[in-house]
Design goal:
This protein is an alpha+beta fold. 35% of the residues lie in helices and 28% in strands.
């Protein structure tokens, strides 16, 4: 079941994000890795910036999350994570399809780590197109607030 989660659910959301993000350790540059991967303060800031978080629950347990952030004529997919044990079971695909249904913009963008090939392939399977490095840098600087070291190690896909 997919529902919207709020600031009141922050500990559940963080549990999913920080469990799922363990897959990035050793894949992304060490200077971009944090433990925990996302802090409570950072997630609170994301909510303040208008990120809406949706979650997939199985047997009343939150097992996947995916957010959106609507900015003018585009929508960013933000913070898409599935608990390690549930990865590859269709949770992410279900969340993404749900976001397609509620999306009001004509353009969807998602950013991920360049070396997270599994994530890139996931989005491509759903019709996203990997942008060039030049276009990626332009989009990341325009729509995301991330440090240069992260920009240099990221890609953007568009649908």
């Amino acid at each position: 079941m997919i529902t919207e989660y709020t600031k009141n659910d922050i500990s559940k959301i963080l549990y999913v994000i920080n469990d799922a993000a363990l897959i990035y350790k050793g894949i992304i540059p060490d200077n971009c890795w944090h433990n925990p991967y996302m802090s409570k303060q950072k997630l609170m800031i994301e909510f303040t910036k208008g990120v809406r978080m949706f979650g997939y629950a199985k047997n009343n347990k939150l097992v996947g999350v995916m957010g959106i952030q609507e900015l003018n004529n585009i929508t960013l997919i933000r913070h898409a994570y599935t608990l390690t044990h549930y990865q590859g079971t269709g949770v992410g695909g279900s969340l993404l399809k749900y976001l397609f249904e509620i999306n009001q913009s004509t353009c969807l963008l998602v950013g991920t780590w360049r070396k997270a090939t599994w994530a890139i392939q996931f989005y491509e399977k759903f019709g996203f197109i990997l942008q060039t490095k030049k276009k990626t840098v332009q989009l990341l600087k325009k729509y995301w607030s991330i440090p240069l070291k992260q920009i240099n190690n990221s890609v953007v896909l568009q649908k």
